[in-house]
Each structure stands twice: as structure tokens, then as C-alpha cells.
Amino acid sequence: MNFRNRDVKLAYIREAILCIAFGTAVGLGVYASFLYFEIDIFGWNLGLIFAPLAAGYAETYLANKIIGESIGAISAFILFLDTVIYGFIWKNPTLGFNVITVGSIGVILQAAFPTLINYIILVVGVGLISYLLGIFKRITSYFSNKLNYFYYKHGRKQLEVVEIQTVTKFNEEESNERINSMDFYFITSTDILDRPHVNLGQFHATVIIEKDKRLINSDPKKAKIETLNKFKEGKDECLIKLAQNIQKASGNSVVNLEIQYGVIGLGGDSYQVTAMGMGIYLK
Fold it and tell me: Is residue 152 left, alpha or beta, with left meaning phi > 0 and alpha meaning psi from -120 to 50?
């Protein structure tokens, strides 16, 4: 047996018991003071909360000084049991289990295990609320879409419905020819920078694409095709705008080209396409 380790463990146990005893004594003193001065609300003595808190604080403070770490605020549990037994069972057994006792338990658990309790409250609690709100939002969105579909299918004129369901056409070949005729180089990497060039700085161009909510509600399949075509058109329009901006600065190329897509607006009612890169004049 390693006698040195055993001695260290025994010393730790003695120090821990000393800290617990100190915290318990402080808590009992606080509770006795609250009882003596009759500090209560509607007959409920506030020592039920402050005594365990004082015990846990005193124990933790002494443990950090002597041991160098907290040992779990065990005296807070001891004081909680003492105060509950004295205040609810011995002195006033008619109070029973109620909101006050539940609140006291919560306060003591918070004092003893702050990280765990905060995790439960902030992560689990907020996550549960968010999940329930998400289910509610999906239910309301489902009925809203059904009502909108019924309205646009049966409540509007047939001519207007046909107009809504018209999908935007995108001529990809024509757009490619327009881009290729600009005498401009679009480069996604920076490998070409070993050639002679002039750095003109960073440039960007943005195109906003609005969602066609009427088409989404009336014909979701055509809405997907419409959105895809608009994204293609928006991407090419961004490239053209980016090239034009660099050409105005006497450049002829863009390197490290990057295209980003995002959702913007209140409720995500629009898409944003952004093209960015470093403009250069390639000699």
C-alpha cells in the first residue's frame, strides 16, 4: 500500500469534513437568526432559502482556500434537510409539499451544481421550448399553405392563375456567350498570381432574388424550377457585374473568385447571390 497516497487521502477527507462542518455551522447560525428575528413572508421564513445558500457559500469559500477546489456544497443539502424538517414537519406540518419547497430545492441544487443546473435550464429548457415552438410553427405553416393553395386555386380568376404559374425561362447558352465575349478572365484560384500583374483590390457584386410566394403556394414543383432558373440567372448577372466593376478599374481578371448564396429579408422572403474576388490587371 502506498502510505503517502493514503495519508494524502486522509488529509483531504479531514479538510473536506472541516469545510462541511464550517458551512453547516454558518448555515445553522443564519437560520437561527432568521427564526429569532422572525424574517418571513406570509408565515414562511426566508431562512429556508438563505440558510442553505449561506452554508454552501461558506463551505465553498473555505474549501477553495484550504483544498483549492469546491467539494460540492454538501452543507447546503444538510441545511436544506434541517430547515425543511424543522420548518415544514416539526414546526408547521400543515404546509406540506408546495411551490415553496420546490423552489427551495431548485435554489439548493443551483448552489451545489451550478454548471449542471444552468445546462439543464439554458440548453435543455430552451431547446425544449424551441422544439415546441418549431412544431407549432410547422403546424401553422401547413394550414397557412393549404389555405393559400385553396385561395389561389379556387378564389382567383383562371387567367391570373395561369399567369402566376408561368415559369421564368433562362437561356444558358446566351448568358454564357455574353460572359465569354467580355474579354475577361474568371479564376477561382490564385495560382496565376506568379505571372506579372497589378493588384486592384477586392471587388464584389450582389443580386437580390425575390421569392414568388404565390407560385410557391399554387404550384411548389414549378416554384422549384423557377427558383433554380433565377439562381442561374442571378449567378451570371453577378459575374457580369463583378467583371464590369473590375474593368472600370482597368482590370481584366478576377482571382480567388467565390460565389455565395444566402437568404435575406424579413421571414427570408428573398435570396441574395454575391460574387467576390480580387481584381487584377494581368499583363
Answer: alpha
Whole-number Å distance between alpha carbons of 185 and 239: 11
Q: How far apart are CA 224 and CA 230, in angstroms?
A: 10
For every residue of 23-84, which 3-state class applies, written as one string? Answer: HHHHHHHHHHHHHHCCCEECCEECHHHHHHHHHHHHHHHHHHHHCCCCCCCHHHHHHHHHHH
Give the span between the Cα atoms of 188 and 205, in whole angstroms. Answer: 16
Q: Give the total residue count for the chain.
A: 283
Cβ 20 vs Cβ 74: under 8 Å:
yes
User: What is the spatial distance between Cα 27 and Cα 110, in angstroms, rounded to a whole number?
Assistant: 16
Q: What is the pLDDT of residue 63?
A: 85
**End-to-end Cα distance, the chain:** 80
Q: Give the C-alpha separation, 253 to 192, whole Å.
A: 10
What backbone phi and psi angles, to 5 degrees, belong to 280? Answer: -140, 160
One-letter amino acid for residue 269 of the chain: D
Whether the CB-CB separation of 251 and 281 falls below 8 Å is answered with: yes
Q: What are phi and psi of 156, to 5 degrees?
A: -110, 165
Q: Tell whether the model's pLDDT for residue 216 goes beyond 80.
A: no
**Is the pLDDT score of 26 beyond 70?**
yes
Q: pTM surpassing 0.70?
A: no
Q: Grid coordinates standing for 3?
A: 502510505
Distance CA 145, CA 160 (A): 18
Where is pLDDT greater, at 221 or 277? 277
Task: Report residue 123's pLDDT band, with 50, 70 and 90 as the boundaries.
Answer: low
- The partner residues of 261 in beta bridges, in order of sequence, read 273
- For the chain, give the mean pLDDT: 76
Per-residue pLDDT band at 267 (split at 50, 70, 90): low
Of 280, 256, 260, the closest CA to residue 271 belongs to: 260
- Write down the pLDDT at residue 254: 93
